[in-house]
From TrEMBL:
SUPFAM superfamilies: P-loop containing nucleoside triphosphate hydrolases. The keyword Membrane applies. CDD domains: ABC_MJ0796_LolCDE_FtsE (cd03255). Belongs to the ABC transporter superfamily. Macrolide exporter (TC 3.A.1.122) family. SMART domains: AAA (SM00382). It comes from Roseovarius pacificus. One of its GO terms (cellular component) is membrane protein complex. This is Putative ABC transport system ATP-binding protein.
Length: 251
């Protein structure tokens, strides 16, 4: 039986990682719209472990994207505390968060945000030019299966290929964490599987801690753990004793 709880404790999956790369304590997020307040997160306690692939699952408005933005240093919690290893993110100012994002986190979003006038190689090079210890752009693109598309422009590529360029760009700086917000949301199932396969390969081969946000429950079967969100809270946590390959996922 999968363990159910608040996401803390020893993992049951193969590598049994014990190191928490992220910890949150009582994290809340309130958006003030002027006429009302929206409680996006309502006291989240969570641990994410080094080297795991975790899926954050839930309906729109459940708080999963808000939490991802806070973990990635793109947004601030209204209350509570967040740590990346021993670094307390909630104690950092804007400059500190910018350095944290630059040095430790790769982002993949639903829409690819590629520069249309640049080739795949040049889009990835935008990151490698400023990273501390980057891969070569060619290596990053090879890792997502695009060795033959490096000199193509976004308009010459399919949606799945563009998303894999975005993944290559995200991993090119060798981040410890890859945060993915609906990476298959704009793709059909066949193309989405190619993107999921790239993410799983990166997790398996590089050991990059990978968090994938989705409302697509089928994707949960490829993860080490699944964290279900509802109404700004963690509803339950499940561990997959047996993961399936992305090619076996159907939706």
């Amino acid at each position: 039986m999968p363990r159910r709880g608040n996401g803390c404790g020893t993992l049951a999956w193969g590598r049994r990682m014990s190191e928490a790369i992220f910890r949150t304590q009582g994290v809340t997020k309130v958006y003030d719209t002027g006429s009302t307040q929206v409680h996006a997160l309502a006291g989240v306690d969570l641990e994410l472990y080094a080297g795991e692939l975790v899926v954050l699952l839930g309906p729109s408005g459940s708080g999963k994207s808000t939490l991802l933005n806070i973990l990635g240093g793109l947004d601030h919690a209204s209350a509570g505390r967040v740590w990346f290893r021993d670094l307390e993110l909630t104690a950092l100012g804007d400059r500190g968060l910018t350095k944290y994002r630059r040095d430790h986190v790769g982002f993949v979003f639903q829409f690819y945000n590629l520069v249309a006038s640049l080739t795949a190689r040049e889009n990835v090079q935008l990151v490698t030019d400023v990273a501390r210890n980057p891969m070569r752009p060619e290596e990053a693109l090879e890792r997502v299966g695009l060795s033959k598309r490096m000199d193509h422009f976004p308009a010459e590529m399919s949606g799945g290929e563009q998303q894999r360029v975005a993944i290559a760009r995200a991993i090119a700086k060798r981040p410890e964490v890859l945060l993915c917000d609906e990476p298959t949301g704009a793709l059909d199932s066949q193309t989405g599987v190619q993107v999921l396969d790239a993410l799983r390969t990166i997790n398996d081969e590089l050991g990059t801690t990978t968090a994938v946000i989705t409302h697509n429950a089928a994707i949960r079967k490829m993860a080490h753990r699944v964290i279900w969100f509802r109404d700004g809270r963690i509803d339950r946590v499940e561990e997959n004793d047996t993961r399936i390959a992305p090619a076996e996922i159907h939706w």
